[in-house]
Design a protein that fits this description.
Blueprint: E1 2-5, H1 27-41, E2 47-50, H2 59-68, E3 72-76, E4 97-98, E5 100-104, E6 109-113, E7 134-138, H3 145-157, E8 161-163, E9 169-171, E10 176-178, H4 191-207
Parallel strand pairs: 1-2, 2-3, 3-4, 6-7, 7-10
Antiparallel strand pairs: 5-6, 8-9
């Protein structure tokens, strides 16, 4: 099984009372909760793709966390993953570390980047039932003004039309999903679970408009 998650920010104590306002008493409580949530879902043979900002800690601290997490971890590098630059960090603890990647997930392409990509490779591809064949998964954006702006862009794209290969006028696909860890209560999710959660979030958002 393959899971995805982003912006865990292990050891980033400021996120408990700023920006995310995660509400844990201290960074130790936050780390333990996230480790428990991860290991409740992920088994030893599973894969987890982290879409950046895995850890605010140093090489030693981050290594200790990785050793406690189930599954094989693959990392899309985030702007706060500074531990990767420390000489004493063993990068081979990850399956790979990349700035960008494209994977196949149950006959669908998954475009992976820490930062959202507005127009991504394979965006217009659909299967024989007209369902999207490509999803853009990202992180970086927490519950901030940036997220409101990205939501507005996605809603705008839903109103746009393009001429398909069959010369039919169709909606422009825009399957951009933020795998922000707080949305899943710090639990890695499968692609289908993220798709479902994203749809539920869109419904809730539009009800408040």
């Amino acid at each position: 099984m393959r899971y995805y998650i982003s912006d865990l920010h292990f050891f980033h104590k400021a996120l408990n009372d700023k920006m995310d306002v995660r509400g844990f008493d201290d960074v130790e409580e936050m780390n333990e909760y996230m480790i428990n949530q991860w290991n409740k879902k992920v088994k030893k043979r599973d894969e987890v793709v982290v879409l950046g900002d895995f850890s605010w800690g140093n090489a030693k601290e981050t290594t200790e966390v990785i050793q406690r997490l189930n599954g094989k971890i693959f990392l899309i590098r985030g702007n706060h993953d500074r531990f990767l630059d420390e000489k004493n960090f063993d990068v081979s603890m990850f399956g790979w570390v990349k700035d960008y990647a494209e994977l196949n997930d149950n006959r669908r392409k998954v475009v992976l980047s820490h930062y959202p990509i507005a127009f991504y490779n394979g965006q217009y591809r659909k299967d024989e039932l007209g369902k999207p064949k490509t999803y853009m998964l990202h992180g970086h954006i927490h519950n901030t003004q940036d997220r409101d702006d990205l939501d507005a862009f996605i809603d705008f794209m839903a109103t746009r039309k393009h001429i398909s290969i069959g010369n039919e006028l169709e909606n422009v696909p825009c399957q951009i999903i933020n795998c922000f860890c707080q949305d899943s209560d710090y639990e890695p999710l499968t692609l289908d679970e993220w798709i479902e959660l994203d749809e539920e979030r869109k419904i809730r958002r539009r009800k408040t408009e």
